[in-house]
Amino acid sequence: MLIDAHAHLDDEAFDADRGSVMQKIEEAGIMVINAGSDIETSEFSVELSQKHDFIYACIGIHPHEAAKAGGNYIETLRQMAECEKVVAIGEIGLDYHYDFCDRNAQKKVFLEQLELAKELDLPVVVHDREAHQDTLEILKKSGIKKGLMHCYSASLEMAEEFMKLGFYFSFGGTITFKNARRPKETASNLPLDRILLETDCPYLSPEPYRGKRNDPTKIKIIASALAGLRGLPVEDIKQATASNARSLFKLPQANNC
Ligand SMILES: [Zn+2]
Ligand SMILES: [Zn+2]
Description:
The protein is of the alpha/beta class. It is built from 9 helices and 8 strands. The protein has one domain: TIM Barrel (Alpha-Beta Barrel).
């Protein structure tokens, strides 16, 4: 069993053929944790999880969308989280690469959602792009105890700090890219019991599909890349990463979801 720990099947890139993409995922026996980015895509994520056994949902406001987090958005997320297929609050975090939203607004919305996750006893899925120090500080301040640093791009040293907070790390297409020295280094050296696999589809297609639309069936390529980096059989990688995803997101233990 392979588990794609971070995907956006709600994305408009799948509007034209979502049905057939879903069928291929099901045929390949892949389980997907689908992440929302705002209220609308979070609702879509929940709907997908209700339609398909092999999909679980995360709900949350992405830092790019922090300006949209008005009114009673926390209450809306709280109600959405009542669905049992909702397994985490995400994706949430900070993005200082694009800076689409004012940094103070990003921090405020991040912290408010961390507090919600704590209240609901759910893990969080964190997006941290070029904002490592602030991300770490806010996570510490929030007192959150479990979560996933998705598409992890900070250093191995910093990973130690996130691990102390009970965090896991997921790696995707970047570990197949030639020049991605840092993700390859962290993916090679972190304890295997802290690592998950993700596609972040429709983005970040692994080689040799770089630049094309990504989808969860390409998680196999990422599993093979990680197996190569760590010098382990791909079966060991599949088993360890699926077991890590099951324990972080409290997914059912059965092989068929
Ligand atoms: Zn992200
Ligand atoms: Zn994402």
